[in-house]
Amino acid sequence: MVRDARAHAACAAARAGREGLIPVSAVGASMRPPAQEDGQETWAAAFARYADIVLVANSDAVDIGDLRTRFGDGTLFVFFNKVYKVLHQAFDGECLLVARSSEAGANIVYRREVEDVVRLLEGPVFRGILNLKAAAAETFSPAEAFGDRTVGFLDLSRHFSDFYSSRHVPSSGFALAVWLTEQRIPARIHLAGFTARRSEAWKVFHVHDWTTEQIVQRLLLRAGKLHAVDGAGPEIPLDRIADRFPGIDASDVSIVAVNVLSERLEQANVVIDKLLSLTSFQRKIDAALRRLKPKTRKAKLADAARARTDAGKGD
Fold first, then answer.
1. 78: pLDDT strictly greater than 70
2. Which of 43, 220, 265, 307 is most buried, judging by how many CB atoms fall within 10 Å of its CB?
3. Nearest-5° Cα angle at 217, 12 to 230
């Protein structure tokens, strides 16, 4: 269910002014977030105060200097997690940091990276930290774990259950982008660097369903609900085939393209099967070595969180 938040957002913006972004009702000093629906409405009102919202992915395709030139006053830049992947010096624009949670709490907290990340954003117009969870198993970190900073919480753990693969979890950028389009706020939402492509420097985690995310993202771009900055939504030659050949319908192009891609995928699967057979011995050695590897700090924290939850259920 998506409710129109325009009126609510306008009233809240008039009351709040431009002093800060983090909504008061979303701020807390414990792991308890606001009620899901009320929290989302409050956040929507906070985001509605901007003319443009630029979501900046941690991608080689991002050009920070170009973004600062393109977008002026009235723009909120939203960064995610390990911002040092795209920021090599302090950012001076109005910005918000999204800190994604896992079972062990916010990733930058359990990795002890809060100071390394925030120092690149913490200027006079830094609007705080949004601790985001987008899966049921994820848990918020306490506000004090982020230091003496304004922290808010946004729970989207049930927001994508009706269409997103249960074997994966939404990426932070995708989750926030889709949620923002559904709030019907007047702000234009721009994607910078949302390519879902692995680079030489940074890997793409398969915990996310990148295929589904790219499909939804490009549909929202076509519908004008999202806007692509260079590198966020590369044009596909298929888009131009129907225009180039009169008499060929765009739907026919889609059907034929699916058939061709299906054939090519099958050919790729044959090659993958051969590679799996050839690397069977190496994979057995790798599995044996991994079993000997001690648990990471993240795994230990996740086990402790589950133990506390199980103990609470037993009371």
1. yes
2. 43
3. 95
